[in-house]
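anyone seen this seq b4? input:
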Amino acid sequence: MKKESYKIRRLCAEDIFSICDIIGKCGVSEFKSCFANIAAEDNPRSTGMAVTFEITGIICRNILFCKKEICSFLADLTGISEAEIYSLELMDFAELIKEIIQKKELRDFFSVVSGFFLSGL
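predicted toks r here
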């Protein structure tokens, strides 16, 4: 499916519920263990790569649990049916996910929320 055949709508407040549901089901609560399980090394690059692989493994193990939610969310954002989302070519699906993750309003939202936690609310 070509990018020209869909348009990602602007994210709104209601979308955060779907986003949080998906993030939770992907195993974000397990990420903390990635940092605890990695031995302190002198090489930050290899430590970063090890953590990245651990997190990727967690997501891969858990992504099936949120398949329906992801496809439903993508369908809602693009106006494409869920059936069409399921049948996207792998590269098109990955590009769609990438576009959504890179949306300015999503980055801005998480910047504000992370600021809450860093400031101790």
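The helical segments are 15-25, 31-37, 44-62, 67-78, 82-86, 90-101, 104-118. The chain has a mean pLDDT of 85. kinda curious what u guys think
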